[in-house]
Design goal:
This protein is of the alpha/beta class. The protein has a single domain, classed as Aldolase class I (TIM Barrel, Alpha-Beta Barrel), CATH 3.20.20. The chain is built from 6 helices and 7 strands; from the N terminus they run E-E-H-E-H-H-E-H-E-H-E-H-E.
Length: 124
């Protein structure tokens, strides 16, 4: 399980981007976080895919998670209830994209038991 944003461990940083020019302001091989979610940032997501960039994108449905996987997202970000629904599908179809749930610090065990790939404990 991957854990982002917990004070006990160091984790990779997400670099928020809203447009292609924002990518130029990030370190090479940075983990990009496409703001606005998949449906609102499709062109930016396609740019990341076509340039082989590592990125995370928020989704609001199972369907969006499927498309994010097909668009080579490194991570899908979503609420914990949705993460639990996506995980069996991601496992069945052998997603390369990992599913990360937004949680409170005391919900790590719950997500581990649900088999979610990882969690983000952070302010959004």
């Amino acid at each position: 399980m991957k854990i982002f944003g917990h004070e006990w461990i160091e984790s990779e940083r997400f670099y928020a981007i809203n447009k292609v020019n924002d990518i130029k302001k990030t370190p090479s091989n940075a983990l990009l976080k496409v703001e606005g979610g998949l449906s609102n940032s499709l062109e930016l997501v396609k740019y990341c895919k076509s340039n082989g960039l590592r990125y995370a994108v928020g989704v609001e449905s199972i369907e969006e998670a499927i498309f994010a996987n097909l668009l080579d997202a490194t991570y899908v970000l979503c609420e914990k209830k949705l993460a639990k629904e996506i995980m069996p599908i991601a496992q069945h179809y052998l997603f390369d994209t990992q599913i990360l749930a937004y949680i409170k610090k005391d919900e790590i065990e719950e997500m581990a038991k649900a088999g979610v790939d990882g969690v983000v404990i952070a302010y959004r």
